[in-house]
Amino acid sequence: MIILAFESSCDETSVAVADFSEGSRRLLSNRTASQVALHALYGGVVPEIASRAHTEAISSLTYDALSDAGISLSDVDAVAVTSEPGLIGALLVAVSFAKGLAFRYSLPLVPVNHIHGHVAAAYYEHPGLEAPFFSMVASGGHTSLMDVRTAVDFVTVGRTRDDAIGEAFDKVARLFGIPYPGGAAMDALAARGDPGYIKFPSAALDGLDFSFSGLKTAVVNHVHSLSQKGLPVPSEDIAASFTAAVVKAVVTNLSCAHDRFGYKTLVIAGGAASNSHLRKAVAEFSENRGIELCMPSPSLCSDNAAMIAAQGFFEFSAGNTAGLSLNARPTSRTSEK
156 and 189: one domain? Predict the structure, then answer.
């Protein structure tokens, strides 16, 4: 089954083609246009600029993705698109484009939850992955712990109550003059520092939730205190200590969730899942607990349409299609318990 998929929930325009058939989960193409240079000027994503950039890029990306896959639109069996959650104007670009193609070529239209899509990225590189399993999505806009009961049944059991994990990294990076997005630079900075320099407060809360805002504020206060006293600001050590606090919070809640749910397989995905310190800590945690760990490669952790194609296949197989009245939603309808 050939899936043509679209992603435009934030600042990445992406189009992918995937072939999902019995025993096969193949990514045929995955084209992404980044808007990092546009938004770096403002220190973060500007919704209106993002929407305009999506509009300019999506058509040519579609031609490129189809060409890379060596197919035409007549070979496509279904169209999948991120419909929630995200920036509403940005989402509407891909939703509208996908609806137009579905109507023109009489194709099934499959709405996909962006957060679920991140988890589905793991299916490509872990062919034996099957639900049920446990998952964490750690990205710039989301931090969620989910009990994945079937490929389309996600129950959120923990989430951030304020800043997302990637958002916290970006805000702390700004303290050190690191331009948006700051995740990769913070990763490298922390690798050169001492994680035991200072103990920052935990971001793990009771009940499997997180709060990264207080942790971020503690870092800001520490930097300001040093500056006001005329003392040097050891950015590498602070970055390492902050990263250590983030990683410890994640492992703490994953450990509590394992005690509660007894999961045997764990999927970690999302842009912040590219962080080398987090990947190492989660790998060690999983090995110690005897858990099978499935993490997409960093290239599949950031926003991309490949993940939407993967989740789109399972949604289509479950009969979750939409009509041309499909609209975008800025918030997620993910189940909670």
Answer: yes
The string of pLDDT tens digits covering residues 246-269 is: 999 999 999 999 999 999 999 999
pLDDT in tens, 48-97: 999 999 999 999 999 999 999 999 999 999 999 999 999 999 999 999 99
Q: How many domains does the chain have?
A: 2
Tokens 């989430």, located at residue:
159
d(Cα 166, Cα 119) in Å, to the nearest integer? 16
CATH number at residue 280: 3.30.420.40
Single out the residue of 67, 68, 71, 94 nearest to residue 81, CA to CA.
94
Which residues lie across from 2 on neighbouring strands?
Answer: 19
DSSP SS3 for 235: helix
- Indicate whether 293 and 315 sit together in one domain: no
Which secondary structure element, helix H or strand E, spans residue 16, and what is its range?
strand 12-21
Question: How is residue 173 written in tokens?
Answer: 């990076």
Q: What is the DSSP string of 20-77?
A: EETTEEEEEEEEEEE-HHHHHTTTS--HHHHHHHHHHHHHHHHHHHHHHHT--GGG--
Give backbone dihedrals phi and psi of 295, rounded to 5 degrees, phi first: -125, 130
Confidence at residue 337, expressed as pLDDT on a 0 to 100 scale:
46
162 and 116 housed in the same domain: no
* Structural domain harbouring 318: 2-121+304-336
Q: Report d(CA 137, CA 250) in Å as an integer.
A: 11
Q: What are 328's two structure tokens?
A: 């975008």
Residue 128 within a domain: no
Question: Quick one: which H or E segment has residue 214?
Answer: helix 212-228
Token pair of 133 as six digits: 């399993």
DSSP 117-144: HHHHTHHHH-TT--SSEEEEEE-SS-EE
158 φ, ψ (degrees, to nearest 5): -165, 150
